[in-house]
Design a protein that fits this description.
D-amino Acid Aminotransferase, Chain A, domain 1, alpha+beta, 33% helix, 10 helices
Length: 330
């Protein structure tokens, strides 16, 4: 929807760079700059410990006794988040409340899985940041606030009835029904807000809100500092949990859930109330221009090589095969 009209611009940038995979130089600390084939767990290790949630990587067919000991050693307590080490758009991401639930999840999904502490901070956002290696300061180009799927009690209707009567929530009724933490037959008090999802992804019903008006010098300075602690990351989006915007702005009491590289989107464009289609197209071109500048600078200043196009294509074909397997595990 946003990308096909911009393909001529992408071809222009490749011609200008004189290399079809110039963008692979953008993030030298991440495999292929973050083209989707990278290990999320390995990428997470780039983040300073104070900013990242406790996480462990569980390989397929690991005995559950070993899994349990690994989780205990990492001081991770239930509930936890389980998700594929390589994955997209919230696919197979689940909140699990007990060891038995995790055991069943791992049995059903025989792939490399990240087990991560559940961060109970109230809010979540995506911050897109880019910096050229020869400059001390970068720029925040996008903030997306995430509004989790909720319904409001009326003191009479059950959650199931509230979901059915809510225009947005009823689109995700099957997903909501899978949430074991929700008693669909319970009747919430009047004006009580019931959160129906804890995964901050569009596919899970989360609404993306354009928060670009919140970009400030203080926030910019905070993320310049954070970026300088993440070796080899110059372009992409951080998905972050936080309590208050004031704490986020100060870089206090925040947890970075993921680093997304070159395939990251400035997700504020999905807020149709605050961003038009043509503004979204312009935003994509602007980010691709930044990607070009970052990549060319890294190639010249840091001597970061461009990935061989055949090798890059091979990675994408392997990723396509992996994703087809992933979808069968749903």
């Amino acid at each position: 929807m946003f990308y096909i009209p911009n393909l001529p611009y992408a071809f222009y940038l490749a011609l200008k760079a004189k290399h079809v995979t110039f963008f692979t130089a953008a993030n030298p600390g991440i495999k292929s700059a973050g083209n989707g084939t990278e290990s999320k767990f390995e990428t997470l290790q780039l983040i300073p410990k104070k900013y990242r949630p406790k996480s462990v990587l569980i390989q397929p067919k690991t005995a559950f006794e070993i899994v349990a000991k690994t989780i205990e050693k990492a001081d991770i307590h239930y509930p936890i988040i389980a998700k594929p080490d390589i994955g997209f758009r919230g696919l197979l991401v689940q909140k699990l409340a007990t060891p038995n639930e995790l055991k069943a999840y791992l049995k059903k999904h025989p792939i490399a899985i990240i087990v991560q502490e559940f961060v109970s901070y109230e809010n979540e956002c995506g911050i897109f940041y880019t910096r050229q290696a020869n400059q001390e300061k970068g720029i925040i180009t996008s903030i997306t606030l995430k509004k989790f799927l909720t319904v409001q009690g009326d003191g009479v209707s059950s959650i199931k009835e509230l979901v059915q009567s809510d225009e947005r929530a009823r689109l995700y009724k099957d997903l909501i029904a899978e949430n074991k933490e929700i008693n669909l037959n319970s009747i919430p008090k009047k004006e009580a807000i019931i959160r129906l999802s804890v995964i901050g992804n569009h596919s899970k019903g989360t609404q993306f809100i354009n928060g670009n008006k919140l970009i400030s010098e203080k926030l910019q300075s905070t993320f310049d500092s954070i970026n300088n602690t993440i070796k080899g990351w110059y372009y992409g989006r951080l998905d972050i949990k936080y309590h208050t915007f004031q704490e986020l702005e100060a870089g206090e009491k925040i947890k970075i859930l993921e680093i997304n590289g070159i395939i990251a989107e400035p997700t504020h464009i999905y807020d149709s109330h605050n961003s038009s289609y043509f503004e979204a197209l312009k935003a994509i071109r602007s980010h691709w221009r930044s990607l070009y500048n970052v990549s060319i600078t890294n190639h010249k200043v840091l001597q970061t090589p461009y990935k061989n196009p055949l090798e890059f294509t091979k990675e994408l074909l392997e990723l396509k095969k992996y994703l087809s397997i992933l979808k069968k595990l749903i």
